[in-house]
Specification:
It contains 6 helices and 4 strands; from the N terminus they run ββαααβαβαα. Helices cover about 35% and strands about 10% of the residues. The strands form 2 sheets. It has a two-stranded antiparallel ribbon. A two-stranded parallel ribbon has the order 3-4. About 0% of the residues are buried.
Length: about 150
């Protein structure tokens, strides 16, 4: 289980972003995560952290037995996924199909989106401050290679 918060991010120098608020999230394999989330999503938890928007636990979402339609992207064409990641995606898709859900192989490149160009644009935006200051500050004392 993790609580995505500034306090638990050792590589962060700046105060938490108020533009993109962090939220409690679940990262576990089993039903025990539901009990933890029910416990976390209480008013007292949000009073302790003013940067976290109050959220209620949605019991109805876990009681629904409807069939889901899930899109899976196997490759973004910018970074080749490792074999273990590809296998995990395929196994997750198979498990979802076995549970009766619709799993659709989704490729944004076939829908007019060039993910390679989108990734390049994303990195250009990140470096737009000049001299790669955002990247350099994120290295926290690690030497920067001159060929970058």
């Amino acid at each position: 289980m993790t609580w995505r918060s500034y306090v638990h991010c050792p590589n962060t120098r700046a105060p938490p972003s108020t533009a993109i608020p962090h939220k409690p999230c679940r990262c576990a394999r089993g039903a025990s995560v539901l009990q933890v989330m029910r416990t976390w999503l209480q008013p007292s938890m949000f009073e302790a952290d003013p940067f976290t928007p109050p959220t209620v636990f949605n019991e109805a979402a876990f009681r629904q037995a409807r069939r889901l339609r899930i899109g899976i992207m196997h490759n973004d064409r910018f970074f080749e996924p490792s074999p273990s990641c590809s296998r995990a995606v395929h196994e997750a898709a198979d498990a979802l199909r076995a549970a009766g859900h619709d799993v659709i192989d989704w490729d944004p490149n076939t829908r007019g989106v060039d993910t390679y160009q989108a990734a390049l644009l994303y990195f250009k935006i990140l470096a737009a401050d000049g001299k790669l200051d955002g990247f350099i500050q994120g290295l926290e004392g690690e030497g920067v290679r001159t060929y970058l």
